[in-house]
Amino acid sequence: MRFFSFLALFLSATVAAEAPVSAKLMTDPLRESVQTEVSVSGNVIVGVMTLAAAGAISKNQIVVQSVANSADNVDTTDNVDSAENQVCLRVASRDGIYTSRNIYALPADSNGQVLLPYKSALEDVVRSFDADEIALAATPGGCDSGGSKFYLLSAGDQAGPSQVVIYLNSFGATDVSYKHDATIMPCDYISEGRRTTFDYICRLDPIDAAESPEVTIIRERFGREQPSITITIAGTAEVDVPQ
Hints:
Strand content: 35-45%
Structural class: mainly beta
Number of helices: 3
Number of strands: 18
Helix content: 10-25%
Low-confidence stretches: 1-17, 71-80, 236-243
Shape: globular
Mean pLDDT: 79
Distance between the termini: 50 Å
Largest sheet: 5 strands, antiparallel
Order of helices and strands: HEEEEHEEEEHEEEEEEEEEE
């Protein structure tokens, strides 16, 4: 009997050790909204995530890689209200009907995946979207902070590798591609459904995030170049992206 009690405790401790630590939701309750009438607005970069992350929203399994809480981004005073400890999570459906913006405080001692709690009061709406109809983006600091750094979002219950994608609002561009190192690859136009918040998807080849790789988004409108956008992606080294 003692053996089985010890075994149960050991297994429980092992599961607990493998479970991601949880960030603190600073904007409690979750800030989310549904609007039936929306106009085209927002940023070019709408989502930086694995494909599996889309399904993680309704299951409260959204995680950010621990590189988001690296030493150069953490306030050593352990002040969770400090912007250095915070991550802004933005979620937007492709049709623009569902949006949310929330701030999380990362635990200073996190090592591995960090869960971003997402208990939606609009669960039926969130569940109604397919995987390619909703985009997630996480950036350091508050939601009003600028910058070009994005943290990779994935699913806490993700089994195996999942492709890394970038969702874009082209703002009328007719050709969109991305550049990493010396390689330029085309992004795919989304031709179906309502495309209010994003209309292109870039599917990334395997990249190493050990040094926070840079990806440049290149846009053209009928042959005329539009301003390019360079972003840094953190956390992709922990996700094996298939060719």
